[in-house]
Amino acid sequence: MTATSWTPTLSTKEGPIYLAIADALAADISCGRLPDGARLPAQRRLADDLGIDFTTVGRAYAEARNRGLVEGKVGQGTYVTARRSPPRAQPSGLVDMSMNLPPRFPNSVLSHRMWEATKDLEGQGLDLLMRYQEPGGIIEDRATATFWLARRLPGLTFDRVLIASGAQGAFHAVLSVLAEPGDTICTEGLTYPGFRSVASHLRLNLAPVEMDEHGLLPEAFERACREAKPKALYCMPTLHNPTTRTMPLVRRRELLSLALSFKVPVIEDDAYGAMIPDAPAPLSALAPEIVYHIASLSKCLSPALRVAYVAVPEGRSLRVASAMRASASIVSPLTSAIAARWIEAGLADAVCDEIAKETATRLAVAQAMLPLGVESSPSGFHLWLSIPAPWTRGELVSRLRSVGIGVVASDAFAVSHPPEAVRLGLGAPASVDELKKSLGVLADLLSQQPAVSTMVV
């Protein structure tokens, strides 16, 4: 087949030229200018046409192959293949909103920079790939973690910082230090299912503490301290999962005063703190001597990293690091190094900004489409929906599942009595259009009586 006479129209936006060529190739395939099976110009010829280096075109074609746009045939050239793969099917064309994921952002230049930054790790040689590291992370990565946390925890020192295998690994290590099987841990009445799972595995009892619209109630915590004699309090004061509530500063101080009075250590889950620049001071900033601060990177940076930064009270690092060794040996050196590289290069802040922009777009769509009774945060990509009567959470979850939409009923979060509510994750849909489809079905169901929508015979 004769090679197509194709010259890309390159974008004027900033970024590598080879990415601009790959983007132009994708656009011309999408609009039909380059049909399936079309043979692209030879790399050297295209380089001459564009007046650029031959290797730049080679990188562009390699990028296009990675995206599934083209394939190379030895001795024959490079051909368009993007339209041969059938589209990925989903039930009723809808999506699962049960997972609470950060939304994918459309900034391809930034995503490329994230991948490019990982190549810099090659300079660390086989020491990174073929050696065990100390539990809690190596000195260099812990220094970067200290820098990251210190922006929310002023005065934080390196000796108090450890790196864990995600929030789950951190929960396991800290609880192992603070409690023994049969002990009681206080937590909000609605709490993170991952924490419930670890507590159950360690055979710990959870004592629910009542909440209001501002989060955990100090007077309820005081009562629990007197009655349940807890070994620790676990809470998420900033952008609580699932309710999206953020505890005001006055209440944080009151809560910590009680924890100090009763000598109850606090485990602070700060998964969303990096997403909210104007959030009240973390509990660990107010009472570092009693708070174990856990800041996972899953929500603000990438769920794939499975890295959490942990700030512990002074003098407790060795015990927590030993617990990490016993449960997970070490945090993955490779993922820890990637996280550190992204932070050092300024990419982590850029990713947070992109996630925030996409979150704002999706939140505006959800608030416009859903009825009253939705709790949300300007920085949060999940919603807490109180279900209007006569619907119940069981009926709604079941009906949505039948059309391919997943949401999480309050039972997954409730330590005692689950309310009639569900959590919706806005980040899982691949696009805003997919989100609109799912929310449209949900809004339509809620506008009907449950009996009208049932198909039971």
From TrEMBL:
InterPro entries: Aminotransferase_I/II_large (IPR004839), HTH_trans_reg/aminotransferase (IPR051446), PyrdxlP-dep_Trfase (IPR015424), PyrdxlP-dep_Trfase_major (IPR015421), PyrdxlP-dep_Trfase_small (IPR015422), Tscrpt_reg_HTH_GntR (IPR000524), WH-like_DNA-bd_sf (IPR036388), WH_DNA-bd_sf (IPR036390)
Domain HTH gntR-type as annotated: residue spans: 15-83
Alphabetical UniProt keywords: DNA-binding, Pyridoxal phosphate, Transcription, Transcription regulation
Entry GO MF terms: DNA binding; DNA-binding transcription factor activity; pyridoxal phosphate binding
Membrane-spanning ranges: none
Family affiliation: In the C-terminal section; belongs to the class-I pyridoxal-phosphate-dependent aminotransferase family.
Protein name: DNA-binding transcriptional MocR family regulator
Organism: Rhizobium mongolense USDA 1844
